[in-house]
Amino acid sequence: MNEKEQHTSVLEPELKKKSDGGIAPPKTIRKWDLFRVFLRSFFLQSVWNYRTLISMGFGVCLIPIVKRLYQDPVERRNFLIRHFKFFNAHPYMASYALGAAIHLEEASARGQKDACEKLERLKELLISILGALGDRLFWSTIKPVSLMVGALLLYIAQDTYQQIGALICTFLLYNIPHIYLRYKGLLEGYQYGLSIHQCIHQNRFQKLQKAYFFMGWFAFLLFFAFLIRTLIQQNLMFVLVGGGSALLYWFIYRFSQKFYFSLYLTLGIGILWGIVYQLWLG
């Protein structure tokens, strides 16, 4: 059997024949295929490594796509090799890159010769963009705000049921935008392809970021007020010492601009003051 016959025998089980004996065009991506990629994206970092970072997980997420587009084992192998190269992004925002990759891989399967080359350049550009967007939105805003709101709710909870409710609210507050952007990013990446820049600019997420920012400040001030009230009821001297230490640290740091020096000096002064105070009481 020659090479051409071997190639045909591999494709034969999955190829659809037209009435005139020709071969049907490549399959198109279905919403079910995208949903399967979405489910796999939760395990994007499961095979994280120092050499290629999240590229292994990125390629694993696209396995439903390669099964849909290609039947030839050689083409499937080349598909995975393309996506096992170095790649990194914020794990939630990487769905935008997944969607764009699916769009261009589908174009390549339909015969667009330069689609794979464009895809490689696009992924290189998205590394820093998606990383910066995700870090600013989730790590610097949504995550700390969710923890602050959760701490406030747990602090004011009166019984076990309220504490469970506080934990559920914290979970939802963090994961609703997370899951929404993970799925929305996949759909929009697939829709826009190379024009993905139209939906990942910073201004688009500004309203969400501001909403969580003000929510966080409100929760912090409310939590601080509850805490001060409790401390005053228990020990007024403790509140005065804590407030004085904070002011002393701020004063030292303002002039020295050295974090650890200011912290250790404040602790040292506090310990010395405590010793003097105890001697004076004795």
Report on this model:
By secondary structure, the chain is mainly alpha-helical. The protein has 2 domains: 11-223, no CATH class; 235-281, no CATH class. Helices cover 74% and strands 0% of the residues. The chain has 11 helices and no strands. It has helices at 3-11, 31-41, 55-61, 63-69, 73-83, 94-109, 115-156, 160-192, 206-234, 236-256, 259-281. Helix 2 runs antiparallel to helix 3, helix 3 packs across helix 5 (73-83) and helix 6 packs parallel to helix 8 (160-192).
How do the strands and helices of this protein lay out in sequence?
Layout: H1 3-11, H2 31-41, H3 55-61, H4 63-69, H5 73-83, H6 94-109, H7 115-156, H8 160-192, H9 206-234, H10 236-256, H11 259-281
Helix pairs in contact: 2-3, 2-4, 2-6, 2-8, 3-5, 6-7, 6-8, 7-8, 7-9, 9-10, 10-11
Summarize the structure.
With 282 residues, the protein is an all-alpha fold. The protein has helices at 3-11, 31-41, 55-61, 63-69, 73-83, 94-109, 115-156, 160-192, 206-234, 236-256, 259-281.
- Which shape, going by the Cα principal axes? elongated
Give average pLDDT, whole number: 85
Counting helices, strands and paired strands, the structural category is mainly alpha
Number of strand segments? 0
How much helical structure, as a percent, in the residues?
Answer: over 70%
Number of helical segments with 4 or more residues: 11
Largest sheet: none
Q: In angstroms, what is the radius of gyration?
A: 28 Å
The SSE order reads HHHHHHHHHHH
Strand proportion, as a percent range, falls in under 5%
Distance between the first and last residues' Cα: 102 Å
Count of all domains: 2
Outline the low-pLDDT stretches: 1-24
